[in-house]
Amino acid sequence: MKKQKGNNLNMGEALQQFIQKNKLEKGLDKVDTQEAWSKLMGNGVNNYTTAVELRGTTLFVSLSSSVLREELSLGKSKIITMLNEELGKDLITKLVLR
Known about the structure:
Strand order of the largest sheet: 1-2-3
Strand content: 15-25%
Helix content: 40-55%
């Protein structure tokens, strides 16, 4: 393995370059979105959440409770804002509860 001179990267920069070079951003965004949903919604909502899927900028959340689905639909814009803040970027523009 050749030693590179003057091209020192810290670990974070190297990892970011690897992610960009291998086009892994979308996959990581999907995983991060699922984790953010679980963290922000807590156990009460997570017990009724059957699937969380990010397609483009739309987040699809499947819920097993119609009552909870109606309750959450009243605060969709606030949920989107909270998720985007947790993710650190404006990734989600639409929330579909089903």
